[in-house]
Amino acid sequence: MPRVSVVIPSYNHAPFIAEAVHSVLRQSLGDLELIVVDDGSTDESLQILAGFTDRRLCVIAQSNQGAHAAFNRGLAEASGKYIALLNSDDMYHPQRLEKLVAVLEADPGIGLASSHITVIDAQDKALGAKHGYHDLEPWLLESWERSFRAGEDLRAALLTENYLATTSNYVFARQRYEQVGGFRPLRYTHDWDFALRFARVARLAMVPEPLLRYRVHGHNTIRENRAAMIFEICWILAVHLPQHIADTWFGELALSRRVDQLLHSIYTYDCDRVLNVMLANGLSNNERLALQLLAPDDPTRLTYLEFIGRHVGKPGEPNHNLIQRIEYSIGAGLPNLISRLRAKIQPRAIMNPGKTPGPTFFLRRTDVKNFLRRIKSKAKRILSLTRSLAPASSKAVFDAVQYPGVFGRIHRYDFMIGGTSPEMLDHYKRVGAQACGLVEEALTLINQGLGSVNSVLDFGCGYGRVTRALAQRVEPKRVSVFDVDPGATAFCIAEFGVKTVPFTNDWNAVRFGTYDAIWVGSVFTHLSESNTARMLRLLCNALSRNGVLVFTTHGEEALRRMARGDYGKRFQTFEEQVRKEYAGRGFSFIPFTQDELSILPFEYKGDADFGMTWMSESYVKALMQDISKGDLQFLKFTPQGWDYHQDVFFYHRVK
């Protein structure tokens, strides 16, 4: 009998299945069996699996029955003392099983062991880290600090969301599995239900190391049925909440405190009535009735789905229920705002809590509630914010967390932060402050300082990594921000009190002022050649006389990082082409794929002009000379001057 059985359900993941299998077979804990259940794949998955000769691998093929059925088939075949799960597009750290099995063996009271996660894209590029429920939460709670997420109780936090993120993060003892049983026929939330059942019979443990590479790509989340998603969320809460709060742990704090936590932990996308009816029907005490609701053609299930569908609207149609609530709330005094919201409020795909690092909402009810509160005292400001925050192309929402030692909150869509450990937070702050220092260095070269400038532009501000540093050194009203993601600029306005330059996917309509200092970080590192020239020309025109322009590019160090795979395997395949173009013309550009663009929290029409860019020092100098016609003077070039890998150019407008 092997010490560990690993079960992989596989369905049409031919590009990733080999890496998943290799990550198991190369574990430091070698006493294992690997059971792959192919759930009716129509791609080359089975052919790829047939190429493995390791005797520890067993491949089972079945007709397509869903992830829960594939897991259950593999679990039925497993013979190990411990069981681990892995999705066919994810990968294990080489020591994952060794470390998590050690946790289970050291304390039999632990039923399910997990770890922190490294989030990667389709090309294996790291997108960030997930440390349990402390960051990258996919579920929105308005006051998380009053919910079960506050504190370190892993069981309580699991009642707010499946912060374990994925079944790939589950390692458990066979004995515990036999207590709780297999996966139920839930399409979207089977992983959450499984974990909650474990939490009732044993403690949970999380190893604070990133021992799992969790992949996010364009084909790993089913978003076509929002009503079914919300139905399953309500079902989970109706079945599990009464059971968990009836246990002794719930009474360890004062009842008033527990009730307050419950009120701030439950989120049903404004479908509380569905949850209330399910609770009234006693699903938690009637397993037969609960499971009957999971049958696709069950009449009661269809009644729930029809109600949810009417309440949240169908994809592509305006949410008339929400529009009526807005009109009732704000009255007839702001007809312009009503007409904007009526045109723009469209229901969007709801995230899958099992396979998405963040929600893909365009505008949610909670955002509208925030708008209405602000309208009462700041009508003019809310109109401005609505123009920036609520265009149909934006997915961003105000959802941010205050971390110790950081000026201002950090937005969930701020991809510039790799995690919320003290080291990651320190790096985030340091890079932002370094950009501010580079602007000050440019001003020093012309015998000025930040205190003397009247206007500063952070071009490509994102969610404020550099803006927050500038706002501490310069009066916020002298700082302007610009970004193609309107949600980013809206956040910077609200959080730091800066000004914005509006953008609506029409560059001809953008109206910049003139600025004494312009910072452009991580922008020309991603633009096509034509867009690079256009943006530089635009910025040169926006620079006031005696002003400074500081911008960054990818150069020699970025070439080295591409070669060693820092930007993912796909870009490694372009190394020869990029180096040839860089050595010849001094410029190379590789567009992003749709999978790579899918992680962005907004939609931008210029997708084909967005990718990875490398420029040599001589190319940039020649381009700037051609654009500025002598109006700008070159001041300085610092290779690897920003965050140890981006080159920095300093220019001064003399005419």
Summarize the structure.
The chain is α/β, with parallel strands linked by helices. The protein is built from 25 helices and 20 strands. Strands 1, 2, 3, 4, 5, 6, 7, 8 and 9 form a nine-stranded mixed beta sheet that branches. A seven-stranded mixed beta sheet has the order 14-13-12-15-16-20-19, sandwiched between helices.
Overall description:
This protein has three domains: about 5-220, Spore Coat Polysaccharide Biosynthesis Protein SpsA, Chain A (Alpha-Beta Complex), CATH 3.90.550.10; about 230-390, no CATH class; about 435-655, Vaccinia Virus protein VP39 (Rossmann fold, 3-Layer(aba) Sandwich). The protein is about 40% helix and about 20% strand. By secondary structure, the chain is an alpha/beta fold. The longest helix has 24 residues, at about 420-445. Strands 1, 2, 3, 4, 5, 6, 7, 8 and 9 form a nine-stranded mixed β-sheet that branches. The protein has a seven-stranded mixed β-sheet with strand order 14-13-12-15-16-20-19, with helices on both faces. It has a two-stranded antiparallel sheet with strand order 10-11. The N and C termini lie far apart (about 80 Å). Helix 2 (about 45-50) links the parallel strand 2 and strand 3 (about 55-60).
Strand percent estimate: 15-25%
* CATH structural class of the largest domain: Alpha Beta
Structural class: alpha/beta
**Biggest sheet layout:** 9 strands, mixed
Overall pLDDT level: 82
Task: Compute the number of helices.
Answer: 25
Number of domains: 3
Give the strand tally: 20
The CATH architecture of the largest domain:
3-Layer(aba) Sandwich
Which of globular, elongated, flat, extended, rod-shaped describes the shape?
globular
Report how far apart the termini are.
80 Å
Rg, nearest Å = 27 Å
CATH topology category name of the largest domain: Rossmann fold
Task: Report helical residue fraction.
Answer: 25-40%
The CATH H-level superfamily of the largest domain is Vaccinia Virus protein VP39
Residue runs with pLDDT of under 50 for 5 or more positions = 315-367, 369-397
